[in-house]
C-alpha cells in the first residue's frame, strides 16, 4: 500500500473509532456530585457563614465538605489591633492574601507588613502570627489546606462572649494540632 492510501485509510479508521467517544463526550464531563467529586460553588462577597472567632470576624466561603477535604477558605474582616499570636499548625498550611488595609505578619521569625495585593505563605510546623496595623479595618482572604481547621473555628466561636479563657482556647486549638508559642 502506498503512503497516501495508508494515511487516508488510517484516518478513516481513526475517525470511526473516535465517533462514539465524541458523541458521548458530554457524559465524560457531566459527573454527578459525590464525596469524591465535589460540586462547583459560587459564593458572592456578601455570602458565607460568619463566625466571631475571639474577635476575628471570619466569613467562611468554602469548607471541607465543599472541597472534598482539600481546602477551607474564609475572609477575615477585622479592625486595627486584632490578630492571632504566634502559633504553629501541625496539620495544615495557610495562605494569607490582603485585600484591604495593612496586616503585619510574622512567618518563621520574619515580620513584614502586607498591604492590598500582598500574599504570605505559612507552611505547617512553621511559627507564624498576624495583626491588623494602621487605622483602618483589614480584609484578608485566608486559605488552609487540607481542610479541617474550620471545625476548630466553630468550637472557638461557640465559647461564651467576653474575654476568652486562654486555657480553654489552648485546649481547643491543641485538639486540632495548633499550639501557641
TrEMBL record:
Pfam families assigned: Cupin_2
Chain ranges of the Cupin type-2 domain: 77-142
UniProt cross-references to InterPro entries, sorted A to Z: Cupin_2, QDO-like, RmlC-like_jellyroll, RmlC_Cupin_sf
Protein name (Swiss-Prot/TrEMBL): Cupin domain-containing protein
Species, as recorded: Flagellimonas halotolerans
Taxonomic classification: Bacteria, Pseudomonadati, Bacteroidota, Flavobacteriia, Flavobacteriales
Amino acid at each position: 500500500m502506498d503512503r497516501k492510501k495508508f494515511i487516508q485509510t488510517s484516518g478513516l479508521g481513526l475517525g470511526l473509532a473516535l465517533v462514539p467517544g465524541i458523541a458521548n463526550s458530554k457524559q465524560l464531563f457531566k459527573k454527578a456530585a459525590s464525596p469524591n467529586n465535589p460540586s462547583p460553588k459560587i459564593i458572592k462577597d456578601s455570602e458565607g457563614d460568619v463566625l466571631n472567632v475571639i474577635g476575628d470576624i471570619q466569613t467562611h466561603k468554602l469548607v471541607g465538605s465543599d472541597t472534598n477535604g482539600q481546602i477551607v477558605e474564609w475572609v477575615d474582616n477585622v479592625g486595627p489591633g486584632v490578630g492571632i499570636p504566634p502559633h504553629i499548625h501541625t496539620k495544615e498550611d495557610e495562605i494569607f492574601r490582603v485585600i484591604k488595609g495593612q496586616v503585619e505578619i510574622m512567618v518563621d521569625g520574619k515580620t513584614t507588613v502586607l498591604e492590598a495585593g500582598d500574599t504570605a505563605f505559612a507552611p505547617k510546623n512553621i511559627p507564624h502570627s498576624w495583626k491588623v496595623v494602621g487605622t483602618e479595618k483589614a480584609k484578608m482572604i485566608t486559605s488552609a489546606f487540607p481542610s479541617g481547621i474550620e471545625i476548630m473555628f466553630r468550637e472557638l466561636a461557640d465559647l461564651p462572649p467576653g474575654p476568652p479563657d486562654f486555657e480553654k482556647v489552648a485546649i481547643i486549638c491543641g485538639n486540632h494540632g495548633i499550639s501557641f508559642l
